[in-house]
Amino acid sequence: MNKDNEFNILFTSSGRRVSLIKLFKEVYHTNNISGKIITADLKNSAPSAFISDKHYIVPRVDNGNYLLELLKICEKENINLVIPLIDTELLLLSENRHLFEELDVKLFVSGTLLNEIACDKVKTYQFFKENNIETPKVFSNEELTEKIYEFPLLIKPYNGSSSKGVTKVHTEKELSFFKDYIANSIVQEFIEGIEYTVDVMVDFYGNIKTIVPRRRIETRAGEVSKGITKKDIDIIHAVEKVINVLPEPIGCLTLQCFKKDNGDITFIEINPRFGGGIPLSIKAGANFPLWTINSTKGEKFLEEDFSWKENLTMLRYDEAIFIERLRDVN
């Protein structure tokens, strides 16, 4: 494929990620980058379909033909980079990186082991403990049977995302019910403190470009709806420690943590993809889109960049796209 004169990105599971795609398009325009932004999703009614240059309908991630369809799009559209936007396809893509490399396509996806750690919250807990990183305790079945815990507790699916199924329980009756009601549940120590989502940019060689802590003011359906950037040095150093021990981190990673009243930082999740609140970090001056393109072209991040603005606040609200008919798709 001839890719010398343009840079084409395929965003998969693009759904509602309109703000992120718009920000990438702005970087194309500002930096005179030639190329297309292609989206792929289950539906032709995905809002992102009306922002991208071309949209493709693809099967569900768990469909046996999903990878084949992505590869067809990559070949047809001369794609340089694939950026997945939901958790459920990260492991699948990382395991099949070689298929894309054969087409000279890069994946903005961390290594397989990292995705295995991130997609299973029990493995995430074990990883944090093995590396002496503070994290809420996950109780074993034996500990639950012997009632070695204190309320409140948190119950959630070990393989969940977007806070689906996350439930705080206060009594034995609630614990008994929700432990069975929530599929694939784990029971976790409940942590109080100020919650942060932290965006990190890492090149294909593991070098960190920036770390942007975002204090979560308000969330909606598990995604930040109000947030503010904070140059909290303690959080930045703690996140840097995590990134440095992760196996093969690549691209944008989003970590979640709490800062307790005593200053301790407790990590709860690793999401190795662009998070829903990433537009705040980008608007603050952390140029994730441009860094994404440059790193794909082979640039190493030899210098970190913390010039982004502190105390920039994001207040998200719903927007609508109005169309007379659904856009034709390929």
Automatic annotation (TrEMBL):
Keyword terms, alphabetized: ATP-binding, Ligase, Nucleotide-binding
UniProt-listed Enzyme Commission number(s): 6.3.5.5
Enzyme category, top tier: ligase
Record keyword Nucleotide-binding present: yes
GO terms, molecular function: carbamoyl-phosphate synthase (glutamine-hydrolyzing) activity
S-adenosyl-L-methionine in keyword set: no
Limits of the ATP-grasp domain: 125-297
Listed PANTHER family: ATP-GRASP ENZYME FSQD, FUMIPYRROLE BIOSYNTHESIS PROTEIN C
Annotated protein name in UniProt: Carbamoyl-phosphate synthase large subunit
Source organism (scientific name): Metabacillus niabensis
